[in-house]
Design a protein that fits this description.
seven-stranded antiparallel β-sheet; Vanillyl-alcohol Oxidase, Chain A, domain 3; 3 domains; 454 residues; binds flavin-adenine dinucleotide; Uridine Diphospho-n-acetylenolpyruvylglucosamine Reductase, domain 3
Length: 454
């Protein structure tokens, strides 16, 4: 039996699960089995006081702490930590609408799917990515990218207020009037850096009555032709169209473009001509549907945990890829044998690019498109080979990529500060030094205060 000597004056409150307690195994399961760890205790906070007590308890007992919301961290030791305390806000998931002022107050434990779908029922539109089970807690702080970015910006571009519990256990409010530097940093500065967010205030948008979605599938062998057509079209197309291209590993054979257009089927059919006329599509599906149905179709239920482990890396692309870059992509896709391995691309531009790079902590506003690649495996003995493949591919692509997306981090990136945050890194360190000078909120690649080494 495990014995942990508690030296604390402070008690843990909320739903508390220690290692060995019933529910520990379920509490431990993150989306990516690669991020599995064995924390000492999980605190499922019910309110900000539970969060505050847990932060103080961790320091009194010299136990490392992590914040957690939707469990989708893509690297290790981010939202779980060996022998530490995980302060999980997922039981706090209430959404309150203030229609008069066009805002929503969203507790940070909700998932993107719950929020987007419940707002859609009320005729409202909120940005989202490709997975409903991603937590609003983590995705917002790093940016939040998806098919509506070109129309209404990142999730973090719609964030206008934050409630956050700091390292002293104090509840802070950050908005344009109060602690505005913390609001600036919370709009793209990454999760788990400054404190534990308990509530966000978001601007809302009226949803269109209907919108148009598309899907196109090609034989995998046509990937060079299709990718080249997509990259010469997607960044320059009408800003109301957000589109992604997914190319699975050779063993899985997927070559698939999809997208969301805030306009009619006839307009989209015209806009798609450069790619529907490329190669020999085996499926072209264009549908004009009510907004609620669009949202349900684009965010189908996805299970946690995923059966496979995956290693990701991400980057931005400023110049159209030449043949050499496309060859590196093909080589990765031929070698990655896990069925979930892929390259993913999302077009950039429009609303997200109109905001200056220093207006919020999210720096990468001007690229043509975003990319991420991931290698998956089932058998732990295959981890090393797949991680090495992802890293080698980053080296090969180095001349053709810029930076990386902090929500899809890669702990093998050495100079991580400028890579995630560009020229905003020093300003983020300043905010960190002000709100967490003792670096209580730290993990590999967290933002270091100025008095701590990078
Ligand atoms: C299947 C899948 C699909 C994805 N699709 C997209 C996408 O389409 N678009 C996109 O932008 N991203 C996407 N992501 C990446 C996603 O944005 C990040 O993984 C994000 O950090 C997940 O947040 P979470 O709350 O679910 O994760 P968690 O594992 O709970 O947390 C992730 C990070 O945020 C911190 N954090 C969580 N909650 C809080 C809080 N309340 N206060 C302070 N820090 C907190 C954690 O400490 C950790 O550092 C996807 C990830 C997965 C696994």
């Amino acid at each position: 039996m495990e014995v942990f000597i508690i030296q604390s004056k402070t008690y843990l409150t909320g739903r508390v699960i220690f290692r060995g307690d019933p529910g520990y195994h379920e509490a431990r399961q993150n989306w990516n089995p690669f991020s599995d760890s064995y924390p000492l205790v999980f605190v499922f906070a019910q309110n900000h006081l539970d969060v505050s007590n847990a932060i103080i308890w961790a320091q009194e007992n010299k136990v490392p702490l992590r914040a957690r919301s939707g469990r989708h961290a893509l690297e290790r030791e981010m939202s779980q930590v060996k022998d530490g305390i995980v302060i999980d806000v997922s039981d706090m998931n209430h959404v309150r609408l203030d229609r008069e002022n066009g805002v929503a107050f969203v507790e940070t434990g909700g998932t993107v799917g719950q929020i987007v779908k419940s707002l859609a029922q009320k005729g409202l539109m909120f940005p989202f990515g490709d997975s409903p089970s991603v937590g609003i807690g983590g995705i917002t702080l790093g940016g939040g990218i998806g098919p509506l970015c070109r129309s209404i910006g990142l999730i973090s571009d719609n964030l206008i207020g934050v409630k956050m519990v700091d390292a002293q256990g104090k509840l802070l409010i950050a908005n344009e009037e109060e602690n505005s530097d913390l609001l600036w940093a919370s709009r793209g500065g990454g999760g788990g850096n400054f404190g534990i967010a308990t509530e966000y205030e978001f601007n809302l948008h009226c949803a269109p009555a209907k919108a148009t979605t598309f899907e196109i599938v090609w034989p995998w062998e046509q990937l060079e032709q299709v990718f080249d057509a997509w990259q010469n079209w997607a960044p320059f197309v009408d800003h109301r169209l957000g589109t992604s291209l997914e190319i699975g590993g050779k063993c899985n054979g997927l070559l698939h473009a999809s997208g969301l257009f805030l306009g009619s089927k006839a307009e989209l059919t015209n806009l798609l001509e450069p790619i529907t006329s490329t190669g020999t599509p085996t499926e072209v599906n264009i549908q004009n549907l009510p907004w609620r149905v669009v949202v349900n179709n684009l965010l189908p239920a996805d299970p946690i945990p995923d059966p496979s482990s995956s290693k990701f890396s991400s980057a931005w692309v400023e110049e159209i890829w030449p043949d050499r870059a496309i060859r590196s992509m093909r080589s990765f896709l031929e070698k990655a044998t896990g069925t979930e391995s892929n390259f993913y691309f999302l077009n950039w531009g429009g609303a997200v690019s109109e905001i200056p790079s220093d207006k919020t902590a999210f720096f990468w506003r001007k690229p043509k498109f975003y990319t991420e690649w991931s290698a998956s495996w089932m058998d732990p003995s295959e981890a090393r080979k797949n991680i090495a493949l992802v890293t080698k591919t980053r080296e090969n692509l180095d001349p053709f990529i810029k930076g990386s997306y902090v929500n899809v981090p890669d702990f093998n990136i050495k100079d991580f500060g400028p890579t995630y945050y560009g020229r905003n890194f020093d300003r983020l360190r300043k905010v960190k030094t002000k709100y967490d000078p003792s670096n209580v909120f730290n993990y590999p690649q967290s933002i270091p205060p100025f008095n701590h080494p990078r």
